[in-house]
UniProtKB/TrEMBL annotation:
Pfam families, per the entry: APP1_cat
Protein name: App1 family protein
Record-linked InterPro entries: APP1_cat, HAD-like_sf, Mg2+_PAP
Signal peptide: none
Phosphatidate phosphatase APP1 catalytic domain: residues covered: 163-318
Length: 377
């Protein structure tokens, strides 16, 4: 057997250690020279159930990225996006999470992230879906730092939810060109939350799925994407502007790790997060929505194999015609497991399928026709 993989891992580990030392030097000089004026806690909205909640967050320099404006120029969009990626992280910082009168302390890792799972008895008021958690930085990083705190929201599905939705984002909700690097970079950096427009009918379909067949189901949404955590605020803003239901966003760190050039593969990240969501949301059944551009069909097939009784249906947006035969093969594999996979581009046809399966009421079809495209599914 070749010994090149161990050598590659050794080289990556060495490069990663150099990167960590470089980050430490940058942080030290930035503090000493006054380049860091404010440190912030960025909590990424979590999820859980009545006995367990899960949150991720990061401590870093405040780059003061302002919200998008419809009149923003391309150059303004580029500058804001560069700021999102020009992070100065704070490793080894202690952060206190406060919930229901209880305090929990966690420490940021080498990349400035913290991850927290809290066990308890979390009771929500009727019709409430979001639980508040207060984070406070315990360490003094800057002179005259003051109190550094932030509030996170933890999503807990209500008891009257009938189905959950796990959805990809890029090329599923919004056109991105994730399989074409130059197009993806242009779209990501040159556009903002207003100019990046979802596919026709997506906002209406997702909003109706949130309400469900009873119009009052309050069905939960979870967004699992391989986009970096640097885009969290941007994606939350995009959901808000285009009236797409809020839900936890499970993104990933794409930086160099000790063993990989990019931390965690696309497939491994999505598999891990989807498994976690399904486990924590037991016994809620799920719809899986993705696209054919990357590995969603393969990932969802594996999820169906592991949780056949928990997956009601799979929808795959057709963004790559060359994958038609392959997706058809996966469709047949899912059918053997008792799960229906629908493949195509037309939101209206997807709506008709959901109505037939009693996940949407018939009356919505008449109300929403004006928003839907006429492409095939």
């Amino acid at each position: 057997m070749s010994d090149s993989p161990p050598k590659n891992r050794l080289l990556l580990t060495l490069i990663y250690e150099i990167k960590l030392k470089f980050n430490q030097v940058i942080l030290w000089f930035s503090i000493k020279l006054g380049f860091i004026r404010e440190i912030i806690i960025v909590p990424f909205n979590g999820f859980g159930n009545s006995s367990e909640i899960y949150l991720v967050g990061r401590v870093l320099k405040n780059n003061r990225v302002t919200k998008s404006n419809p009149e923003d120029s391309v150059w303004s969009n580029v500058k804001k996006m560069i700021r999102r990626f020009r992070t100065v992280i704070i490793p080894g910082a202690k952060v206190q999470a406060s919930i229901d009168g209880e305090n929990y302390v966690v420490e940021t890792n080498e990349e400035g992230y913290f991850e927290l799972t809290i066990k308890g008895d979390f009771q929500l008021q009727k019709e409430q879906s979001w639980l508040s958690v207060r984070f406070t930085l315990l360490d003094q990083i800057l002179k005259n730092q003051g109190v550094v705190s932030a509030e996170a929201k933890v999503f807990i599905p209500s008891k009257n939810a009938s189905v959950g939705v796990i959805s990809d984002i890029d090329d599923t909700i919004i056109p991105t060109g994730a399989t074409r690097l130059l197009e993806m970079l242009k779209t990501t950096f040159a556009k903002n939350a207003y100019s990046r427009v979802p596919f026709p009918g997506i906002s209406e379909l997702y909003s109706d799925l949130r309400r469900g067949a009873s119009w009052q189901d309050n069905n939960p949404f979870f967004y699992v994407s391989s986009s970096p955590w640097n885009l969290f605020d941007f994606l939350m803003e995009l959901l808000d502007i285009h009236r797409i239901p809020f839900g936890p966003l499970m993104l990933r760190d794409i930086g160099l790790s000790r063993s990989e050039l990019i931390s965690g593969s696309h497939r491994a990240h999505k598999m891990q997060q989807i498994r976690h969501i399904i486990r924590v949301s037991d016994p809620l059944p799920f719809l899986l929505i993705g696209d054919s551009g990357q590995e969603d069909p393969e990932i969802y097939l594996q999820i169906v194999r592991e949780f056949p009784s928990r997956i009601l249906m799979v929808f795959i947006r057709d963004v790559d015609d060359s994958r038609l035969d392959y997706v058809s093969t996966i469709t047949q594999e899912m059918a053997k497991l008792g799960v229906d996979l629908r493949f195509g581009k037309d939101v209206q046809k997807a709506r008709e399928v959901l109505i037939r399966h009693r996940l949407l009421p018939d009356l919505i079809e008449q109300k929403r026709d004006q928003f839907c495209s006429s492409e095939r599914i």
